[in-house]
User: Which sequence fits this backbone?
């Protein structure tokens, strides 16, 4: 009579994805992704320029590598923001309009329901991010001769960051109105990204920024670190293993916080 | 064992007391009509039973378990008062989703969906989007999802809301058919005549307390209608 927990999760996650796909917003995301790809196409088409910096000729692959890193970080930021934006109402909306009540009246655990909704929102954000990152990597490989494979760990890092941002946005949406949640996501992602980028360039950070850089969710740093081959011999600061572990810890902790808060929530 | 039970349950929202020491239960196969004026605590009772909210005091159990345990809701179907259906979904997709969560799969699921569509008069509407349905048809969809998989307990909050007279009669038939196969039913309603026709037990809530409860026959004084008994208990 009662379906298995795995079946319940897969049914709910599929429904959450279908629900996200039925929204008109997805069309806007697809159009924006295509426009971004067009911009990337334009950015990566420069193939034979000669650059001089401080009287020194800088070779094209190195310039291309730095440019590619910037483009990839922009694509990763888009994915992170999209995950937060979609998650900010993917759980709150069905709770608010009452459509979640019928599903939660079934033998469905609250935690499973929240994680399925998160998976639905993330699937859209990650699909858009995958298209952008992979297409950009392919263009850079074809036009600038950069190796393409570092995009895989970069995408994995981006996905883990998106899961963290999505879970935290969904958690915030249980307590805040949508607009406040979206603003919080935008400010949070932008702030952490700025700290991460400043850290990459060796800038001196204030105490709060240094704490965020040392203990906060690493959003941009792991992406940059995964792509460090592209700007060699310039080194990207940071230890890949430590960053990966911290990223996984943040992802799990934010998902656990979401599940805990949703289990405690009173659904009126 | 009672299929659902509230034992000395209170629910407070800040200073406001929505339920105050409520005790009631349904034996398997019985049908309880939950009556009361607006704000008496009927919907709060249903939300407690489904684990949507927690009791401030007392014990709630559904099929012998805490309502916070998802397993307590296996074999339970719910029709809320404020039925919100996902507008962009089709009727069939909606029923497939709920049928799957009710434990149906494969050909059983398809057969059950077709049967319930026919029974609720939605046979020709299976591929319509839920957002395009009238209130009455949406309520039929709500009933259809509740009847999927032959649940052993039906929790119905104002089940005839939005239905035309034919729909009200159909709803009564669906409830009686569920009872005939042994299901337990809890109906929260303002329509006393429907409760009188479909339930064998009644509980009257007033200002968060049980004003009266018991088998319908014992609750009514000689020559008294349910409406008379309701008014007598609420105004007492």
Assistant:
């Amino acid at each position: 009579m009662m379906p298995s927990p795995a079946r319940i999760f897969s049914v709910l996650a599929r429904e959450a994805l279908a629900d996200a796909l039925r929204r008109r917003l997805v069309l806007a995301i697809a159009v924006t992704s295509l426009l971004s790809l067009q911009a990337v196409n334009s950015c990566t088409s420069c193939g034979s320029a000669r650059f001089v910096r401080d009287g020194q000729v800088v070779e094209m692959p190195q310039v291309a590598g730095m440019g590619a890193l910037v483009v990839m970080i922009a694509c990763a930021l888009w994915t992170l923001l999209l995950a937060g934006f979609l998650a900010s109402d993917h759980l709150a909306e069905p709770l608010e309009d009452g459509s979640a009540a019928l599903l939660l009246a079934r033998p469905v655990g609250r935690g499973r329901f929240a994680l399925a909704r998160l998976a639905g929102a993330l699937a859209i954000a990650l699909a858009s991010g995958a298209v952008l990152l992979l297409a950009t990597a392919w263009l850079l490989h074809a036009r600038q001769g950069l190796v393409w494979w570092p995009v895989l760990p970069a995408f994995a890092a981006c996905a883990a960051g998106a899961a963290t941002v999505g879970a935290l946005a969904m958690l915030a949406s249980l307590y805040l109105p949508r607009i406040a949640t979206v603003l919080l996501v935008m400010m949070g992602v932008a702030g952490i990204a700025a700290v991460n980028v400043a850290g990459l360039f060796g800038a001196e950070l204030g105490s709060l920024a240094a704490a965020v850089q040392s203990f906060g969710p690493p959003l941009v740093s792991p992406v940059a670190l995964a792509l460090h081959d592209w700007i060699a011999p310039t080194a990207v600061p940071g230890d890949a293993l430590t960053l990966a572990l911290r990223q996984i810890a943040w992802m799990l902790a934010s998902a656990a916080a979401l599940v805990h808060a949703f289990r405690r929530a009173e659904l009126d | 064992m009672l299929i659902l039970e509230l034992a000395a349950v209170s629910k407070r929202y800040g200073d406001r007391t929505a339920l105050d020491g409520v005790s009631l239960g349904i034996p398997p196969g019985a049908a309880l009509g939950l009556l009361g004026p607006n704000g008496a605590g009927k919907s709060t009772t249903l939300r407690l039973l489904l684990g949507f909210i927690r009791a401030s005091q007392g014990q709630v159990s559904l099929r012998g378990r805490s309502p916070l345990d998802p397993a307590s809701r296996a074999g339970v179907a719910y029709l809320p008062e404020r039925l919100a259906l996902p507008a962009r979904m089709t009727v069939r997709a909606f029923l497939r989703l709920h049928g799957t969560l009710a434990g149906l799969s494969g050909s059983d699921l398809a057969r059950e969906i077709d049967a319930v569509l026919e029974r609720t008069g939605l046979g020709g509407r299976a591929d319509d989007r839920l957002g395009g349905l009238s209130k009455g048809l949406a309520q039929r969809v709500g009933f259809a999802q509740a009847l999927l998989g032959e649940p052993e307990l039906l929790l119905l909050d104002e089940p005839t809301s939005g239905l035309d007279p034919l729909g009200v009669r159909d709803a009564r038939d669906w409830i009686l058919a569920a009872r005939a196969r042994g299901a337990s039913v809890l109906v929260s309603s303002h329509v006393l005549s429907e409760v009188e026709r479909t339930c064998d037990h009644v509980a009257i809530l007033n200002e968060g307390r049980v004003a009266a409860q018991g088998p319908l026959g014992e609750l009514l004084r000689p020559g008294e209608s349910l409406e008379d008994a309701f008014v007598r208990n609420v105004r007492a």
Observations:
- Chain B is about 35% helix and 25% strand.
